Structure prediction request, 402 residues.
Amino acid sequence: MNSTPDLTVVVPTYQEAENLPELVTRLFAAVSSAQVATELIIVDDNSGDATVEICEELSRTFPLRLITRTDERGLATAVMRGLEEACGRYIVVMDADLSHPPMSVPALMAPLESGAADFVIGSRYVHGGSVAEDWSLWRFVNSKVATFLAVGLTTAKDPMAGFFAIRRSSLVDLSTLNPCGYKIGLELMVRCGCKTVVEVPIHFADRKHGESKLNLREQWLYIQHLTRLYAFRYPDVLRFAKFAAVGVSGLVVDLMTFRASLPGLGLAAARALGIGTAMTWNYEWNRRVTFAGTGEQRSVGSYLRFCTACLSGAVLSWTTSLGLMNVVDAFQQRPVAAALVGTCVAAVVNYALCRIWVFSERSQETVESTLPEAIVAESAILPFEAPVQPDDQVVLPARKAA
Ligand code: GDD
Ligand code: MN
Prediction:
């Protein structure tokens, strides 16, 4: 093998010592018969079993590196650590417990090599794939529900798989990834903008030794993770939902202010106060929450732009509802429905104005460029200058294969 391997296989482990000899032997048997120069990186979270000794022994025969993490625990971050250390042009990630057939590793790499795919999944749910017969109903339902919840992110049949392949060149700056729990594959697929996903059928076997670390906490983490990925893929949907929620809260503020001030101020002034208070309330919450990412500062200018946007919305709502009642037969007897349509149209237009004109992304650049130079420089360097912890890892020497 020349100094850069074609393939890096990353295996996260926690208390998998018993599985390692068979995994490593079968993996290297598979890649050598396919003539793929391979390095193996095992990322272990200080399991406290015989992992270190077994890896030391195996590294005499196979090009294997063990990284022991002592500062962090978790599957996703362990995989990320492996990705950082990988040298191969292609990367395969798999479990240590032999659930994922090592024999299929070359097949996962092939579509990347031929250019047929940007991301390859070792899939249980395509034709020819299967899961161990004694999979519990609970585990099956769980896996299916989890897959269904991700439909808006990928059409892959088995996006939850921990057995996948990606080109190293596709990896985005790993410090921008934010996976939690188990679904690092899904994270990479979405964040690295992988367009073509190919699924290679595999049989997912039950583990022989040890037990699964998948538990209820993981399901909760998964929901959080999904929310983030959806927000990344469809930023406006989430933002619009926040905008609508702020709008509803503004309505409450309006009515409460109106009611409280009516006796003292009289109808006209109390109504004006209600509307004005709600508009100010909405401005502030939209600035702080809905469009927080733009870094827009509180200013008279943006406040007036916001009021103008609201006013345009109000005029539009008024004309739409009156127009519908006058022109469309179905709405003639349904003024509330017409008003509702008017409100929805206004909300969308109002949102668009806020997004493009009131709290535009442009303002982020302005904020950064007004920061003192030293701070800008430091934050630019930070992701690449993560402190090195010398005693955080035991890296066994990689042996060159014959
Ligand atoms: N370093 C590290 N740290 N490794 C871990 C940790 C951890 O905290 N937790 C689990 N692992 C390793 C295990 O040692 C194993 O190699 C692999 O991650 C998968 O863990 P399992 O506990 O065997 O997971 P599973 O069988 O329940 O889940 C598998 O199937 C799921 C789909 O049903 C995994 O492949 C998941 O990624 C997959 O989503
Ligand atoms: Mn497993």
Observations:
- Residues 363-402 have pLDDT under 50 and may be disordered.
- Residues 334 and 342 are 13 Å apart (CA to CA).
